[in-house]
Each structure stands twice: as structure tokens, then as C-alpha cells.
Amino acid sequence: MINFILWIIVGGLIGWIASMIMGTNQKQGTLSNILVGIVGAFLAGYVITPLFGTGTINQRDFSLPGLLTSLGGAVLLLAIVRLFTKNKDVQKT
User: pTM of this prediction?
Assistant: First the structure.
């Protein structure tokens, strides 16, 4: 149970840091930050982990390389979301 709570907290922090890096912090709430952190770590598990051989928070790797890999996945996820939603923002103005 404690691993699940830790996973949620660390996922939220990673999502929050990724949203600050990508400049989407004003548009996201706490739940969005948690989802971005966890889904970004999942994405990193498929994309970044095979390249560097590190784990992610989804694999219960709370080491510095694991946290940085999860952060990279969260930033990658926000970049992909921005790529697909950028056209909608341009059409509104």
C-alpha cells in the first residue's frame, strides 16, 4: 500500500516538474500532474529505458536515474500532447 501512495506522490511531483519545464503549469491541475507523471514514466519505460538501461517509477525504481528517466518520459508526453493540440490553439486566435 505504501508503494502505491509513494508512486502517486512521486508521479505528481514528476508531472509538476515536467509541466514547469514545458510551460504548461498554469493549464494543469494536481490530477493532470499525477497522470502526466505516471503515463510519462510508462512511456519512458518503452522509449528511454531500452536506450539507457535504467528503470522508471512504474518499475519501482526510485533512484536518481529512474526518476530522471521518468521525468524525461513526462516531458516527452507533454511535447507530444503540445504537438497535437497546437493547431487548436492557433485556430482560436
Answer: 0.83
User: Over the stretch 9-45, which tens digit does the pLDDT of each residue have?
Assistant: 988 999 999 999 998 888 788 888 889 998 998 898 8
Cα separation, 35 vs 8, whole angstroms: 9
Length of the chain: 93
Residues 6+ apart with CB under 8 A from 18: 36, 37, 40, 71, 74, 75, 77, 78
What's phi and psi for 88, nearest 5 deg? -70, -35
Q: 84 vs 14, 55, 70, CA distance in Å?
A: 22, 28, 21
> Which three three-digit cell numbers place residue 29?
491541475
Burial of 5 (0-12, 13-18, 19+ CB in 10 A): exposed
Supply φ then ψ for residue 33, to 5 degrees: -65, -40
Domain extent listing, the chain = 2-92
